[in-house]
Amino acid sequence: MNLIFLGPPGAGKGTVAAELKKTSGLDHLSTGDMLREEMKNETELGKIAKEYIEGGKLVPDDLIIDMVKNRLENAEAGIMFDGFPRTVAQAEALDKIAQIDAVINLTTTIDVIIERIGGRRICRNCGKVYNVSWYHKDTCEDCGGELYTRADDTEETIRTRYDEYLKKTAPLIDYYRVKGIVHDIDANGDIQTKVDAISDIIKG
Ligand code: AP5
Q1: Is ligand 1 within 6 A of the CB of residue 135?
Q2: Distance CA 82, CA 84 (A)
């Protein structure tokens, strides 16, 4: 099974995908994580992506599509796509290389997004995502790595990312709705309730 997580920045796409990876047997493909790895390694792609990401803008489609195609060459399990596709051009490219069985549309509001992303902290070593609303240490509980705040998690950049989402990504909800595969999930509830609901969708 292949599924897509759609939703604005901070809706919880990465958090639920990381939880579901533990039990579903599905692989987690996050284009945001892949781009941050490219930036960390200072690759050509990373250097180009940095400017777009830190300005809250989407990275050009051709770069993203090539990156995902390369990653899928080694895919063995079904995939949870997190942060991809983000434009109709990306969705059309994905249709040519993978069958999508379900789209999880996480819905929330800009106020919740700003509060959540403003409190997000990430482990520099293993990438685990925390929030200061429930985790008060500055090192990772799993590996002891230092926690940091993403450079694109300022309020100004979050608002630009949200505008990008409304303009370029939200149209994908209808793109997939006509195929009859969209499941709307209220992203405002607690994390485990969402994980359980999506788990049921995966099990069919
Ligand atoms: P990306 O990394 O994909 O960022 P995003 O879509 O903006 O999403 P986030 O990672 O901010 O949020 P999330 O929904 O995963 O929320 P999370 O689980 O962390 O992309 C970054 C950039 O890369 C883009 O802006 C773009 O430039 C570029 N890019 C990436 N993919 C691209 C593509 N396909 N095309 C072009 N450009 C691309 O949760 C957020 C916080 O809330 C956490 O602290 C978490 O603990 C907390 N939280 C989560 N759920 C709950 C809950 N239910 N209750 C309370 N707290 C919660």
Answers
A1: no
A2: 6
